[in-house]
Please model this.
Amino acid sequence: MIPAEFDYVAPATVDDAVRALADAGEEAKVIAGGQSLIPVLRMRLAAPTKLIDLGKIAELRGVREDGDALVIGAMTSHYDVMRDPLIGEHAKLIAVTTSTVADPQVRHRGTFGGSLAHADPAGDLAAPALALDVEMVAHGMDGKRTIPASEFFVDYFTTALRPGELLTEVRVPKYTGWHAHYEKFNRVAQAWSIVGVAAAVQVEGHTIKQARVGLTNMSSVPVRAGGVERALIGQEATPEAIKTAAEHALEGTMPVADGNADIAYREHLAKVLTSRAVTAACR
Amino acid sequence: MTMAAEPEVGKGRLRKEDARLITGRTRWTDNISLPGMLHMAVLRSPMAHARITNIDASEARQAPGVLAVVTGADVADEQGSLPCAWPITEDMKTPNAPSMAVDQVNFAGEVVAAVVARSAAEAQDALEGIDVDYEDLPVVLDLQEAIADDADLVHPDLGTNKSATWIFDSAEAGTGGNVDEAIAGAEVTVERTFRQQRLIPAFMEPRSVVVDPTGEQTTMWSATQIPHILRLMLAMTLNVPEHKVRVIAPDVGGGFGGKLQVTPEEVITFLLARKLGRPVKYTETRTESLASAHHGRDQLQKLTIAARRDGTVTGLKVELLADMGAYLRLVTPGVPILGAFMYNAIYKIPAYHFACTNVFTTKTPTDAYRGAGRPEATFAIERMMDELATELGMDPLEVREKNWIKHEEFPYTTVSTLTYDSGNYEAATARAKELFDYDGLRREQAERRQRGDTVQLGIGISTFTEMCGLAPSRVLGSLSYGAGGWEYGAIRMLPTGKVEVITGSSAHGQGHETAWSQIVADKLGVPFEDIEVLHGDTQSSPRGLDTYGSRSLTVGAMAVLSAADKVIEKAKPIAAHMMECSPDDLEFSGGKFTVRGTDTSTGIADVALAVFAAHDLPDGVEPSLDSDATYDPENFSFPHGTHLCAAEVDTETGQVRLRSYVAVDDVGKVVNPLIVEGQVHGGLVQGIAQALFEEAVYDESGTLMTGTLADYLVPSAADMPSFTTDRTETPSTTNALGVKGVGEAGTIASTPAVVNAIVDAIRHMGVNDVEMPCTPMRVWQAIQGGAQSAAGLGAEPGGGMGSIDPEGGAR
Ligand SMILES: Cc1cc2nc3c(=O)[nH]c(=O)nc-3n(C[C@H](O)[C@H](O)[C@H](O)COP(=O)(O)OP(=O)(O)OC[C@H]3O[C@@H](n4cnc5c(N)ncnc54)[C@H](O)[C@@H]3O)c2cc1C
Model:
């Protein structure tokens, strides 16, 4: 299908992109990897009059270390995130989750920042971002500000980014030595999560010292499973203890029904998958 | 000096068409670009059932690049009614079927207007300038509600939603006993109702059509399975002289029955090209394809089986409701009826009754989809055999064995009047059991059950047969089908000894070019590479009934073979003349006529050259070797096989994982084992997809909720186990090559094997059925013993919608 007509610019710097966005106003949209935006345009669910392509902005790509944190450029592709040695070492949860996203073609084009800005409740990357307490760095005409993940995801496909703001970087605290697993549940290999659970744990001996758990598609936004985390801390990493802790998985969730899962089934899955995600992370 | 070549038939040759198909360096319809060509886009009804009260297209008419905007009212006089070629009963109710709705729409996706513009983008843009006012009519979605006395009607003028009821009864036909008596007197009866969900053929290449009206003949290129039937139907529907139309099916990217159709879009493109006097192209989007190209299956099946305690089946009663959707397309009403002959399957069933009521709903019309009627029948009987075995406490394979036709009983005339020419169910089953490790898996199953493992193992069986090679013209006549079942083939001997083979079959992915070349290479003794197969163009291949129903090899190739025989017969007197001997002294083999008992010989290429020169031919002999033939099969072909599936069910989540799948098929003699393997693999995936993944879901207002490939789950290789395939080979006795069809076998066989495996895995948890597709939620709910949640995506956004945000993306 053919999108409605639009203008296209591809600025070379963040500043130019921010200015272009401000100039174009309400009717403009930013395009990153296009893996979510292009289908929406082609189905004519949206008809922005101008697309501002971030693909030419070199400073938005790549991963670097900044003291206690990693900084992931918004335009870093899923493929690069998955294979990045710094992420593998300090934020393994993001790497393992990204490897479950879509297929190789999509992973080469889709971006980390695009996924987070898109804020699809079924998208996989928001839950680990939330669980790991990352910070979103936004640039607008008024300069730069930082938004904690806990405030970033507002509603279905809605973030705290203001009109005219770009997501430029994601700052991830280091979780060096933590174990991680993303338990994704779907019907065919290339599909969004019906429910997904992101779990990162720090284990000493057999004891869970710290735990971070985030749920995908259990509400209009990703959900931090704080109850589960608290119940895990200090426990022996046994299947029974983990299962007991996973009983807290529904705290703060507000799942909806769809063709793949009604509410009761989704809630059941959240518990089972939380238990499996933590168990796998502990191994 | 040539050596005695190894026969081509039986060689696993790579397909000669693949390089161009895989690289896309070929002519798909959408690649065609003609001078002055215009582009069409169509506006489709978002409503399932409504009266059109007004259409305002004034803005679209003014839009840039637009040459024409037409609505149903504009073409009402010339569009005719889309053809239905299969009036199954004399009193069948057939609604008028306009290509473009005139005053009422009857399914969401029906065309209500069309725009032709200079570019595809302009045509698409202009659609937004058409305003249609609709007045709601009640939707009709549920089969059972549709036939209730006070039901809302899809077509009020017909007075009912029932199109026709078709009945076969073995007592009346004199082929068996009375089924009600069998049931009344049975030691055991089992009754079950199964739902055959609605499926979408989902061919890879969307439908596309180009019409060029600028020549003396109007040429239509279409991504169709049926160029010949399409030409005839265009002539009959639109009242254009048949000889003024040429139809070309260039390379076509899959069909699975979904392109066995005369489509509204073909007709509309034809009308608009004619009106404008310029070539027009239309290519559908994937979403248009999913919503409006015909769907498949969609039946409610009630079966009652009667048996003795020892497992002997004594009767089978089948009562069906079949969803036609809103209109009767080309063979819509006949699809469920094809199943009538297949419920008795491989079994000796002494009393049989089949009744099917065809029902209208406000949904996309259904029609042929890979297997067409036979997968539905096979699913139901194979599920029933498992249910009967459970009821009797017998092994499901043992119950089957007790009832199946034994190899020494062929040819065998069934209770539904077909004569199966050959088969060996014992051999295929024995081989499948061996490859599967049936006994080992049964042991593991028992062990997991005992342990209360969260992952339970089930074994599913499908011992199937099918009728294909459609079809003897006489049989089709007796079923009131609107055409015969013959096929046409021809051979052109070129002066240089190269060969053109013309076939009325119309390949759209099957590999005809390779298989036909192998067959002709053996027959005429010419190299495989020296043969070109021409198809899919009514100009080069003047007659034909096209490709569907696994008919190409068993019918189409027979015509080619018989044309090749005629070439040899024509060449013989000429060769004799050239060698100054009597034709009776000649024998033909390896491409050479040899004078018996000598080493004097003449090659067929030499004869071809002599014929071309025509300087010195025997008196009265026409200077041509070219020959054609039309072959009408005497019988169907009956491939069969035994498929065994091991499925693991995660009882905590309901997720099903196929652990192993063994398919032992008997498709008779094999021309090209690689092509057969490909057909089996693809077929298996499509059948497994029905069991586990695919379903066309409508919401309560009749909108298709699975309108993208993010919602309509077509599986990929990543979702499949690695298949173990093998063959037994019982030649068909009906045709000269001993071949049977293989195009649909995998799809027909695999669906019940998978569902049987799932039910077998969790039967001890109180489950005796899971509705298809067996989604994790349905399996889990079945285990919980809860009511099965009706299918249907909720109205709220969520997981199933993937990243398609109805509001248009991130805010
Ligand atoms: C076939 C397929 C399968 C998929 N499967 C999965 C899956 O399993 N799991 C999953 O999580 N995702 C999946 N996706 C989505 C994929 O991960 C996308 O890449 C991602 O959601 C969006 O990233 P993008 O870079 O393509 O963004 P785009 O599509 O370019 O943009 C998405 C939205 O975000 C906005 N945006 C993008 N970047 C910025 C920015 N820097 N600042 C402000 N706004 C911005 C855009 O304006 C747009 O509204 C799939 C996509 C496809 C096509």
Observations:
- Residues 308 and 481 of chain B are 38 Å apart (CA to CA).
- Residues 787-806 of chain B have pLDDT under 50 and may be disordered.
- The pocket of flavin-adenine dinucleotide is lined by residues A 29-37, 54, 74, 101-102, 106, 110-111, 113-115, 117-118, 120, 123-125, 161, 166-167, 190, 192; B 803, 809-810 (CB under 6 Å).
- Residues 552-579 of chain B form the longest helix (28 residues).
